[in-house]
Amino acid sequence: MALTSTLPVFEPYTGREVVLGGGLEALIPQLQERETTTWNQNQLKDTASVRLFKKEMAWEKQFYDAGGLLVAGTDPTGAGRTVAGYANRRQLELLVEAGFTAVQAIKISTLNGATYLGREKEIGTIEAGKQADLILIDGDPEKDIQQVRRMEIVFKNGVGFDSVKLFDSVKGKVGLN
Fold first, then answer.
1. Which positions ≥6 away from 67 have C-beta within 8 Å?
2. From the DSSP assignment, how many helices (H) and strands (E) are in the chain?
3. What's the chain's average pLDDT?
4. What is the pLDDT of residue 78?
5. Which residues contact 39 (CB under 8 A, 6 or more apart)?
6. The Amidohydrolase-related domain covers which part of the protein (predicted)?
7. CA-CA distances (angstroms) from residue 105 to 9, 15, 30?
8. What single-letter DSSP state applies at residue 135?
9. 67: exposed, middle or buried (Cβ count in 10 Å: 0-12, 13-18, 19+)
10. Cβ–Cβ under 8 Å, residues 4 and 60
11. Which one-letter DSSP state was computed for residue 19?
């Protein structure tokens, strides 16, 4: 049995970020304004959600520690605060906040998903003969998981892409029809 952690979807309004993972700039201006207004109006008003969120984090850690297969996803809901790519970074950060090591959080987000899909011999880790997309980070995520926000290069199908240029290319475009 596997459980998919989608912590960014459920992270309540706790004063942290308007769009989780730092993706506010990616939204079109109208959505930036809407999300910022909603975020400001909802800060720390729902203490039950905060308590439930902390319980969810603890439950996921217990599940994993008991031998459960925990995989990660971000499941953008259309509500505006969960933007693909940005939410993936936030997922790693939240797993570490829940008590996982950075290495465990990365494994949950890579190898565990491949294992669940029965593709761990093809993907999920960096090994000779496997397919792998890579990111180069300017920092050490084991010391500070937020260093994953400092991606320099993304390798997809063997081609390196400038991460800063990729993120810049989507600024103000998420939400266009």
1. none
2. 7, 5
3. 92
4. 62
5. 13, 18, 81
6. 67-158
7. 17, 23, 34
8. E
9. exposed
10. no
11. S
**What pLDDT score does 149 carry?**
95
* Residue 155 one-letter amino acid: F
Token output for 27: 């939204």
Could you read off the pLDDT of 76-114 as tens digits, one per residue? 666 668 888 899 999 999 999 999 999 999 999 999 999
DSSP single-letter state for residue 40:
H
For the chain, the domains span: 2-130
Which pLDDT tens digit goes with each residue over 7-45?
Answer: 988 888 888 899 989 999 999 999 999 999 999 998 888
Strand partners, 151: 137
Phi then psi for residue 111, to 5 deg, are: -60, -40
Bridge partners (DSSP) listed for residue 3: 70
DSSP-based three-state secondary structure for 107: helix
